[in-house]
Amino acid sequence: MSTYMAKPAEVERTWYVIDAADKPLGRVAATAAHLLRGKHKPTFTPHVDCGDHVIIINCSKAVLTGKKLENKVYRWHTGWIGHLKEVGYDKLMAEKPEKAMTLAVNGMLPNNTLGRKALTRLRCYAGAEHKNAAQKPVDYKF
After folding, report:
1. What's the CA gap between 128 and 18, in Å, rounded?
2. What is the CATH architecture assignment of 13-65+94-139?
3. In degrees, to the nearest 5, what angle opens at C-alpha 142 toward C-alphas 101 and 114?
4. Among 101, 106, 104, 74, CA closest to 87
5. By the 8 A CB rule, do 104 and 63 touch?
6. CB 13 within 8 A of CB 35
């Protein structure tokens, strides 16, 4: 019995909308990463980019459980000596909730060309409105 290997030209991409209101940020990010990678499809092939497009709305209403809102910190280095920057998640969620969601999803994707390509199919919005209605996205319930 031979194993099915998807070819890049055969991949069918659908659009999904995930509502993050009153759901944990990490759980929404894990679901989005699962869809972006294409692991929910029976034709999943690890070395082929076979994921779907994901739209996450209401990122500002996503919740962080426990004391993560006060204690969790996002750190990055600019590349200059002594320029380690950090911002708390309380400030990040208040000012740029889409960035917090994108960072969470990015951390759950593989660190290679497939993961970088999958992240281009992610769209995050702070509110309930999105500008991808023309693609006829399907609501994803989890």
Report:
1. 10
2. Alpha-Beta Complex (3.90)
3. 50
4. 74
5. no
6. no
Q: Is the pTM of this model over 0.90?
A: yes
Is residue 24 within 8 Å of residue 61, measured between CB atoms?
A: no
pLDDT digits (tens, 9 = 90+) for 84-114: 999 999 999 999 999 999 999 999 999 999 9
Pairing of strands 84-88, 73-77: antiparallel
Return the residue matching tokens 């769209």: 123
Closest C-alpha to 62, from 105, 107, 24, 91: 24
Those residues of the chain that have pLDDT short of 70 are none
Residue type for position 55: I
Q: How far apart are CA 120 and CA 27, in angstroms?
A: 20
For residues 120 and 53, what is the distance between their CA atoms, to the nearest angstrom?
Answer: 9
